[in-house]
Write a structure and sequence with these properties.
Oligomer: single chain
CATH architecture of the largest domain: Alpha-Beta Complex
Keywords: Fatty acid metabolism, Lipid metabolism, Transit peptide
Family: Belongs to the enoyl-CoA hydratase/isomerase family.
Shape: globular
CATH topology of the largest domain: 2-enoyl-CoA Hydratase, Chain A, domain 1
GO biological process, one term: fatty acid metabolic process
Structural class: alpha/beta
GO molecular function, one term: hydro-lyase activity
Number of domains: 2
InterPro entries: ClpP/crotonase-like_dom_sf, Enoyl-CoA_hydra/iso, Enoyl-CoA_hydra_C, Mitochondrial_ECH-domain
CATH superfamily of the largest domain: 2-enoyl-CoA Hydratase, Chain A, domain 1
Strand content: 5-15%
Helix content: 40-55%
Order of helices and strands: EEHEEHHEEHEEHHEHEHHHH
Strand order of the largest sheet: 1-2-3-5-7-10
Largest sheet: 6 strands, mixed
């Protein structure tokens, strides 16, 4: 499919996060290219607001997060952080609030009832890499690069580590965290940080193709499956099977499962119920 274009970049007072709805999915575009789409206090708030609205939008079955400019997201705004060094507490309260709200926003992505797909062009560093890792799926343009470079400036990427270590192997995560070096899109795919590598400039096409395929599914089933996936990951094997079996039984009792199985048996397209 041909992906819809992101909303055009407008003036500096344009929304920090632009939303465009398509057939069954939404594209959220980070829109502060001059600051490399850094996760400033305001950017986190803007993204959180859009995610909260999507959580209750029954018309959507997937979300794509893209960005304008040469960087997908350069992590936290270091100029903003430096500015708070002059606070009476040397910035401690601001830093604690910033980390808490950023962590909450990342967890909102994981808890969202529909899959979230990152479309990455350019660099995704530090909390920007965390944003990619927090998404359920990711497509990278061939020129995309990823890093957790905090170690290079005396600030270990501890919060990005949480999402990164849940996506890639321990040794790959430690390599990125301890060296701070950039990795390319192909290495990111090999490590499991991204699902696909698209030609440069076509990450949004690939992400929207994912979203369109997912949008054809039952929203109830997507919500059930996504929640169960993350819940069972934190459990031991026996507990995970017990939990998954309970989820499966409840899913079997749902109208959409009855409809989907019936449609398969009758060789017709299912008609999903909004949920």
């Amino acid at each position: 499919m041909t992906a819809p274009s992101p909303a055009p970049v407008a003036t500096a007072d344009a929304p920090m996060v632009q939303r465009a709805d398509h057939d069954g999915f939404a594209v959220l575009t980070l829109n502060r290219p001059a600051s490399r789409n850094a996760l400033s206090d305001a950017m986190i708030a803007a993204l959180q607001k859009e995610l909260d609205a999507i959580a209750t939008d029954a018309s959507l079955r997937a979300v794509v997060i893209a960005a304008h400019g040469p960087a997908f997201c350069a992590g936290h705004d270091l100029k903003e952080i430096t500015g708070h060094r002059d606070d009476a507490d040397r910035g401690r309260r601001f830093f604690a609030d910033l980390m808490a709200r950023c962590s909450a926003m990342m967890q909102t992505i994981v808890a969202l009832p529909v899959p979230v797909i990152a479309a990455v062009e350019g660099v995704a560093t530090a909390a920007g890499c965390q944003l990619v890792a927090s998404c359920d799926l990711a497509v990278a343009g061939a020129g995309a690069r990823f890093a957790t470079p905090g170690v290079n400036i005396g600030l270990f990427c501890s919060t990005p580590m949480v999402a990164l270590s849940r996506n890639v192997s321990r040794k790959h995560a430690m390599e990125m965290l301890l060296t701070g070096e950039m990795i390319g899109a192909e290495d990111a795919a090999r490590m499991g940080l991204v699902n696909q590598v698209a030609p440069a400039g076509e990450a949004l096409d690939g992400a929207c193709a994912f979203a369109a395929r997912i949008a054809a599914k039952s929203r109830l089933t997507l919500r059930t499956g996504k929640q169960a996936f993350y819940e069972q990951l934190e459990m031991g094997l026996a507990d995970a099977y017990d939990y998954a079996a309970r989820v499966m039984v409840e899913n079997m009792m749902a109208r959409d499962a009855e409809e989907g199985i019936g449609a398969f048996v009758e060789k017709r397209q299912p008609v999903w119920q909004e949920a």
